Amino acid sequence: MLRTGLLVSLVAAGIGLAGTAHAQQKTVYMPAILELSGAGAVSGTNFRDGMLMAIDEINKAGGILGHKIETPVLDTQSDAGTSRAQLQKVLDNNPYVVFGPVFSGSVLVTQLMTLKAEIPEIVGGEAAAITQKNNAYVFRTSFGQQFSMPKIANYIHDSIKAKSVAVVWVNNDFGKGGRDNFTKEMKDRGINIAADISTEVGQADFSADVVKLKGANADAVFVYLNEEESARFLKEAKKQGIKAPLIGETTLLGQKVIDLAGGAAEGVQGHVGLTVDAPIKAVQDFAAKFKQRFNYVCDHNGIKGYTGVYFVKYVTEKIGKFDSKAFAEKAHGITITPKDEPGILMEAMWDKNGDIDRESFLGEVVDGKQKIVKTLPMLSKK
Amino acid sequence: MASFIQLLVSGLATGAIYALIAIGFTLLWQTSQTINFAQGEFVMLPAFFVLAAMNVGAPYWLAALIGIALSVVVLGVLFKAVIVDPMMRHGVLPLVITTIALSLFLKESVKDFYSSQAQPFPAPVAPRDLHFLGAVVSLQSVVVLAVAVLTVVALHLLLNKTRLGRCMQATAQNPTVARILGIPVGRMVLYTFLINGALVAIASLLISPIYLAKFTNGEALGMAAFIAAIIGGFNQVRGAILGGLILGVLDNLSAAYLSSQYRGAFPLVILIAVILFRPQGLLGRVEERAV
Amino acid sequence: MRRLGPSALAIAGVVAIGLPFLLKPFGVYLISMWAVLTIAAIGLNLTLGYAGQVSMAQGAFVGIGAYTVALLTAAGWPFFVAFILGGALCFVIGWLLGYPALRVQHHYLAFVTLAFNTLVFLVLRNEEWLTRGSYGIAGTDRPSLFGFSTDNARAFYFVCLAILVLLSAATWWMMRSPWGRAFVALRENPIRALSLGLDTRRYTLMAFALGSTLGGLAGGLYAPLVQFIEPGSFSLNMSFNLLLMVIVGGSGRFFGPFVGALIAVLLPEWMRIAEGYYLIVYAMLVMVLMVFCPTGVLGLFEKAFRPKKAPPPAPATLKAEVTR
Amino acid sequence: MTAVLEVNNLSKRFGGIVAVDNVSFTVNDGDILGIIGPNGSGKSTLFNCVLGQLLPSDGTVRIDGQESTGMRPCDLNRLGVSRTFQLLQVFPQLSVRDNLILAGQEHQGSMTSRLFGRPDAGLGDAADQMIEFFRLSHLAEEQAGMLSYGQQKLLDAAMAFMAGPRLVLLDEPAGGVNLTMLGLLRERLQAYHAERKATFVVIEHQMEFVMALCTRVLVLAEGRIIAEGAPEEVRRNPAVIEAYLGH
């Protein structure tokens, strides 16, 4: 009796507590579901901090349509099941839009639910599949892999003129997705994959992988790893004297990797989708403010979070009301320029699938700094 | 051939680190039946002690000493007094749960109170590469290997050549008999925890320059040390060293010559084979305990 | 205690049926997850708590069950057929995993099963032709029952609850039967059991197989509940979590898994009031709980209700002994 | 008439050490055979070889004429060979009644019927009778671990009889038991023997116990049989006195 009664009240208390984050007067409820612990903690934390900056700025300036933004951030533990639970929790409180998650697997599970609830979801995931499901409520904040990989492929084909390429990738959904899209693009361009090397999350010793690379003797090496692993790989590649150019996508050329790798990142080249080192003043100012407030260098996820919030602000002001359905309709095909909304940092356009289009860059690491050598125009402006 | 030597040498350097961590793991098991699932986090943490000390202005050598001292106190004394002692008599499983919770606690604490970002960590030696039979080895790896070997030799001497060490071994092998012989068993157990605290701190200093200091570092390290300890012999210090080295080399060789996608599987298959056909480990002795 | 049993059970039943009508979909999802994880924990409690065979691979069986159901239903098989097949597959694999237990015991067995769990993860991730690899499988449909779709949260909760009730009743029956006695004998004194004519080999394998089957059946519900599975969901973390449920609830006690799963599902949610620090607080609470009641929550209750008697020795401790 | 137990030229070596050396003996229906000998004389090893716990190096064991060498203990038990242990071997968390049901259940039906049949495997009454017989009725529902040492010894013996065995091997039943309890134990064993015509083999140190209980005694020293006969004969045998006093 006693035991059961106690349990019941505990259960009720637990679930009751979980549902208290109700929207109050003059606020708009836009919760975020992010990877704050587990494998995705770095990405999720960056995304969150970027969002926080934007929210504070907007709230200080009076909010959106006079409503203060209320954004509780819920941890998914980088796990799909927990993501689903947390999304359900915020859906129960009728959000206007939902931010996150970043992990593609978690996006795939949550986007089914936001579609059903007709709530726009501003995601950080980059897997191609996310926007290929005819879902009118999902919006990206960065390139999907189906857009970034052709850019890399063009670069390898046109600039490096490689006939064969080796690919080193991290064996999780992020790395696998990148590798699959990349391989497809290489085949389309008639470039031979000389070595296909899978590595583990948290891998420490890359000597075997670099030995294999040397054996493959490819004209170029495409590296698609997370930050620390990128740095460890670069150190090992330098040590064993890899001669072929090392090509990366965004992460490999990030300042964080450059710092962590010491001198080993010198000469690395590649495509940079979204970077705090972009030759754009607004972006660099943002990066400086971010560094000052959070005491670390922001990665592309920070920019995603920041611009994502401003995206919502701009679209909402265009429709003039908090209407989730109207938001989703309006946001498709919208173009936002920094002139209209400075917080968007760079001109951005969302297409009918929710994919984002922006300028991007080709870069190179010179003297311990990322140097942008070429700006690639938006796809829609070609 | 050059690439084989490269794999071998790199594998040995990585394996030496696994060995350092695995030794502490086996020591704790022997004296207190603690299967420490937080051992990886124990290696992750001291690097942050050092970084914190350097942030308040301590030079590297002083920060390193502070890191080791703190690690001995927190991961040695406190860990034993607060967690292991009250739980020891309740069997192994509750303690296993507790160390799993402890590993989550340490990870999350570092993430929330220090940073979720990977931190560069100062290296004790200059970043130079040495050439050796066609293979390239960083000076750092050589130092790691050397320190690991020295530590192990010192530990071996301590355990086998000193009275204290023999008392500790007696405690590990049969606490009841040791107590009858007048050995202060409690203190001997404490010493093994202190040694583990120091070992993980040394491992942390050695590997953080290569792996970078990050709160998730313990996950892969802890598992590697665990596998190394079992392959080598769960109840022998020498076995842990052999296990560590085998694991480091095996990982490289299997990734290079067999399958990189299944690189993680080979050590596990060997682990299962060792347990089933030589449960005392490659160098371990048969465990004999009165029922 | 014993006299309170039926009324407590009746109240629990009323609560289990009434609760989803009071809760929002999030709450319903949580208690559905509780029901699913309880099934897996009952399985582990059978293997570990009753029969004393330390298994750290229960998460892998949840994964095998989940993948079986996700893949077969995606290929057009009816849910309940896939569900049963998932359980059957786990029975076979669990039986095979039991063989090491005939050679080694306790911590060595824990290590073997732990390695097995990681191997299963690697296979799920690498064999893309079969499992779709690290992309995972999204959108497993919830079953239809007699023409009624159970797609909504509440309906599916009742599916989970019904299966939980069914399986726990079956487990209860088994634990009262000679098999239950044999499992306990296996844990407490395998040598003596052998000399009393117990075929310890067969019972050990059976304990593994049945525990794994329950894990697989739980997985069969996990896939349509979450509607997304990936190899990472069934790594060691899941096994550790299930182990935690069994030990924290009270290993070798029938209602232990129910309480343990409740704690493992709800405690982190309650702790979210600590915001960013909630996992720290959660980890601390687990440690405190273990330090103060190593026999689990139910062990604590027993102590409170029967203060006079010395508690019986904790089950599933490590004793070095070898059975033939 | 075939012997209940027939041991032929049985040897057991551990490495270079010969623990049991070419031992042969038979036990007939209704016998109570005592096996005595100084520490390390090979009694327990002999027992374990007969019971399938150890594999003999040489020689054969027959039960009722059927070769049983190398059979697993559980299969032997189902042939009707039962035993008690030197150290306490009950199941501490099961009740006394459940201990006894457990001891008999594997002799009832099949695996399947044990799962789907009656929870007590139809042994409830038999268990209660056995509890009664060993004077444990007041403790029937207690956890066995809560019983005193002597009571656990009684339970251990009761469990050995539960399945109505052909042959019971008792390993130091008197060890560590106080005198009152010892009297009760001996009296019950004799009563059981008289009632059911059971066949016993007893290993024991306690001479009085053996002399009072056994019909025949066999003396082991250094793995070999050095004397065999009625208790009184053996007691006077100079080789036996030598073996006991010489060490």
Task: Using the alpha-carbon principal axes, give the shape of chain D.
Answer: globular
The portion of residues forming beta strands of chain D comes to 15-25%
As a percent range, the share of strand residues of chain B is under 5%
Number of domains of chain D: 1
CATH architecture of chain D: 3-Layer(aba) Sandwich
Shape by Cα distribution of chain B: globular
| First and last CA, distance of chain D | 39 Å
- Helix percentage range of chain B: over 70%
Please tell me the overall pLDDT of chain B. 87
| Spatial extent as radius of gyration of chain D | 18 Å
The Rg value of chain B, from CA coordinates, equals 19 Å
Counting structural domains of chain B, the number is 1
Let me know the largest β-sheet of chain D. Answer: 6 strands, mixed
Largest sheet of chain B: 2 strands, antiparallel
Number of strands of chain D: 10
Q: What is the name of the CATH superfamily of chain D? A: P-loop containing nucleotide triphosphate hydrolases
CATH classification class of chain D:
Alpha Beta
What would you note in describing this structure?
- The complex is a heterotetramer of chains A (382), B (291), C (324) and D (247).
- Chain A is of the alpha/beta class.
- Chain A has twelve helices and 17 strands.
- In chain A, a hairpin with a 5-residue loop joins strand 14 (348-350) and strand 15 (356-358).
- In chain A, helix 3 packs parallel to helix 4 (104-117) and helix 8 packs across helix 9.
- Residues 1-24 of chain A have low confidence and may be disordered.
- Chain B has one domain (2-219).
- Helix content of chain B is 74%, strand content 3%.
- Chain B is built from eleven helices and two strands; from the N terminus they run ααααββααααααα.
- The N and C termini of chain B lie far apart (52 Å).
- With 324 residues, chain C is mainly α.
- In chain C, helix 2 (25-50) crosses helix 12 and helix 4 (79-103) packs antiparallel against helix 10.
- The longest helix of chain C is centred in the middle third of the chain and has 27 residues, at 200-226.
- The termini of chain C are far apart.
- Residues 307-324 of chain C have low confidence and may be disordered.
- The interface between B and C is large, with 44 and 44 residues.
Could you list some keywords that capture this structure?
heterotetramer; A: 382 residues; alpha/beta; Rossmann fold; 2 domains; 7-stranded mixed sheet; 3-stranded parallel sheet; 12 helices; 17 strands; 19% strand; globular; disordered N terminus; D: 247 residues; 6-stranded mixed sheet; 4-stranded antiparallel sheet; 10 helices; 10 strands
Topology summary:
The complex is a heterotetramer of chains A (382), B (291), C (324) and D (247).
Chain A: H1 2-18, E1 27-29, E2 32-34, H2 41-60, E3 68-70, E4 73-75, H3 80-91, E5 98-99, H4 104-117, E6 121-123, E7 138-140, H5 145-160, E8 164-170, H6 173-188, E9 192-199, H7 207-216, E10 220-224, H8 227-239, E11 246-249, H9 255-261, E12 269-272, H10 281-294, H11 300-319, H12 324-331, E13 335-336, E14 348-350, E15 356-358, E16 360-366, E17 369-376
Parallel strand pairs in A: 1-3, 2-4, 5-6, 6-7, 8-9, 8-10, 10-11, 11-12
Antiparallel strand pairs in A: 12-16, 13-14, 14-15, 16-17
Chain C: H1 5-22, H2 25-50, H3 58-74, H4 79-103, H5 106-126, H6 128-131, E1 137-138, E2 144-145, E3 148-149, H7 153-176, H8 178-188, H9 190-195, H10 200-226, E4 228-229, H11 236-249, H12 256-270, H13 278-292, H14 296-305
Antiparallel strand pairs in C: 1-4, 2-3
Helix pairs in contact in C: 1-7, 2-7, 2-8, 2-10, 2-11, 2-12, 3-4, 3-5, 3-10, 4-10, 8-10, 11-12, 11-14
Chain D: E1 5-14, E2 17-27, E3 32-36, H1 43-50, E4 58-63, E5 66-67, H2 73-78, E6 81-83, H3 96-105, H4 111-116, H5 124-133, H6 149-161, E7 167-171, H7 179-196, E8 199-203, H8 207-213, E9 216-221, E10 224-229, H9 231-236, H10 238-245
Parallel strand pairs in D: 3-8, 3-9, 6-7, 7-8
Antiparallel strand pairs in D: 1-2, 1-4, 4-5, 9-10
Helix pairs in contact in D: 3-5, 3-6, 6-7
